[in-house]
Amino acid sequence: MAAKSKGKSLSCFGYPLSIFFIIINEFCERFSYYGMRAVLVLYFKYFLQWDDNLSTAIYHTFVALCYLTPILGALIADSWLGKFKTIVSLSIVYTIGQVVMSVSSINDLTDHSRDGFPDNVSVHIALSMIGLILIALGTGGIKPCVSAFGGDQFEDDQEKQRSRFFSIFYLSINAGSLLSTIITPILRAQECGIHSKQRCYPLAFGVPAALMAISLFVFIVGSGMYKKVQPQGNIMIQVSKCIGFAIKNRFRHRSKQFPKREHWLDWASEKYDKRLIAQTKMVLKVLFLYIPLPMFWALFDQQGSRWTLQATTMDGNFGAIQIQPDQMQTVNPILIIIMVPVVDGVIYPLIKKCKINFTPLRKITVGMFLASLAFVAAALVQVQIDKTLPVFPAAGQSQIKIINLDTNNATVGFGSQLNSVNVMSMKSTDYMTFETSQLRSLTVTYGNKTTIKSVMLSEESRYTLGIKTNTMSVVAELLSDEVTSKPEEGNNLIRFINNFPDDINVTMGGTSFGILKPLSASNYSLFPGGRKDEIMASINSVPCSITSRAFGFGSAYTIVINGCSQDGLDILYSEDIPPNTVHMAWQIPQYFILTCAEVVFSVTGLEFSYSQAPSNMKAVLQAGWLLTVAVGNIIVLIVAGASKLSKQWAEYVLFAALLLAVCIIFAVMAYFYTYIDPNEIEAQLDEEEKKQVKKDQEVYEKQVEDDSQM
């Protein structure tokens, strides 16, 4: 790889050497951002212990902030510091934010009691919010600067190389986001900690922080090679001033004595030149079409919030691979890489051959419709998930399940006015729901042996009744289950009941359940999903073991130890909460439909915008486009907060219906839109300016001639 000097700039294969530092910088930065963002909603839910709605709200507030700050970054770069200093300054802020975020997730920071839970959650919340604000300022602030700074490195005669640079630059963005959304969820799933082992959020946030530090270091190393263009003012400020002056001037001259003008922006002609006014008109015409677009982003960005939370209630077992809920987001960038060439090279040419005029605005309309369809698919999946969720006791209710620990069948009666149930030997029933106030006693019968047990149940609680006979009587032990929600993150809850006449010492997978007395139960312990573990029991100082079954994901089991035989432990499994049975693969259709929507919406949207506005106004359109993303995330906060829907599938349908309504409105707006050619308009302006210059020149020459004759 030969590098040669060309003046002050070094080149490599005809490209400025400096752009390689910029591409590496962008790859690391995108890895940092998307890696952190991939695990963010689960960090809110499981570490900060926020509910789904608050987790979703804060997530979308952060994303909205990330898309509002680019306007600030562009203004700082173009009007004050310049692109290089802006990127360096805000990258430092960005790196500090990532480090603060990593520190905020260290459980041992406030876990003075060493029980595995933070003693002062407020400290972690405060640090998290500080970190996220700094990250939003950093990532948003440098977003409009890095690509433009890369473009500045090329000479005017390197248009081909510049075009290829932007292709490689976009590829580095996708590569960084794809790798990070695969890797950081794996890091999060690890267990780490000083005093107690927890999900390793410090590592999941720490690696993105390290990548951001590398990104900053690489960018600074290339400093001596960069071409640094001085700030020349921001076109957005000029456009804003032009619009502001037109509105103010029109308001001043609202009286009927002043003649109307063709367009309200023409009221700026007293102060601003005809070219700027004409260019602003073209931009506003496109920005008007942007008004319905935020609704698309409101749905699209829920991949990282609601869809990730949906995945936590699903089965992620793909054979040899266990997929984490936050890894399902990788489906989108993978499909993007596949679908962009397929749509451009196959779908669009086929549509053209069918002689269908598939205009850019029609493509955007189809994209919005497909996104709405994706949320209908998500709702259908959610309906299936809801069918598998256990029903827990409501207010005024209690639930009881029965485990028959005896070799004989039994009958259990629930008071005089309630039905009785038969329980087969060494079997268990499902949970039965009772009004707490009505159930005061239980009658257990084995043949001619009967016992009546008084009970005092708590509302909204579950119980397990263990029953057995001995030579003299019937034994009935009522055990409190203390589990009223499904285990999250695909984990399993396991406990043991000792059905042996002697004390036993139980361990499973390295977790000790302690010494269990006869007919007593251990507390539940948490185990990662999808695993098999060795169960060890010491009975009369004699060790006995067996390998457990694979428990699936999101389940709870009571394991009854009956004794030890030549084959190992004799155990009985009783399912307290069924595992997740809806597979994560069922999310792929909704991701596929949404990715197709993104391809025809996002790519076409920017392409259309640039084709309908002057080249020097691209910054204004980019700011407007990013603003639609920010507003879309704010819409999620408003709709999710105002809807008060108890069922998640209903919220998905609501979003789908809202986007469909907006899609119809946009289709009407698009129908009345007239396409323009900015180059043709600018050519007319150039011609008019030339005529004006020529006219002014003639007036001047005539004036000089008249003066000379006097």
From TrEMBL:
Its main location: membrane. The keyword Nucleotidyltransferase does not apply. It is found in: Apical cell membrane; Membrane. SUPFAM superfamilies: MFS general substrate transporter (SSF103473). The chain crosses the membrane at residues 12-36, 56-77, 84-101, 121-142, 163-183, 203-226, 282-300, 334-351, 363-383, 619-640, 652-673. Electrogenic proton-coupled amino-acid transporter that transports oligopeptides of 2 to 4 amino acids with a preference for dipeptides. Transports neutral and monovalently charged peptides with a proton to peptide stoichiometry of 1:1 or 2:1. Primarily responsible for the absorption of dietary di- and tripeptides from the small intestinal lumen. Mediates transepithelial transport of muramyl and N-formylated bacterial dipeptides contributing to recognition of pathogenic bacteria by the mucosal immune system. This is Solute carrier family 15 member 1. It is a multi-pass membrane protein. Coiled coil: none annotated. Belongs to the major facilitator superfamily. Proton-dependent oligopeptide transporter (POT/PTR) (TC 2.A.17) family. Keywords: Cell membrane, Glycoprotein, Membrane, Peptide transport, Protein transport, Symport, Transmembrane, Transmembrane helix, Transport. It holds the Pfam family PTR2. One of its GO terms (biological process) is peptide transport. The keyword Membrane applies. It catalyses: L-alanyl-L-leucyl-L-alanine(out) + H(+)(out) = L-alanyl-L-leucyl-L-alanine(in) + H(+)(in); an L-amino acid tripeptide(out) + H(+)(out) = an L-amino acid tripeptide(in) + H(+)(in); glycyl-L-glutamine(out) + H(+)(out) = glycyl-L-glutamine(in) + H(+)(in); L-aspartyl-glycine(out) + 2 H(+)(out) = L-aspartyl-glycine(in) + 2 H(+)(in). One of its GO terms (molecular function) is symporter activity. Interacts (via extracellular domain region) with trypsin. InterPro entries: MFS_trans_sf, Oligopep_transport, POT_fam, PTR2_symporter_CS. GO terms for cellular component: apical plasma membrane.
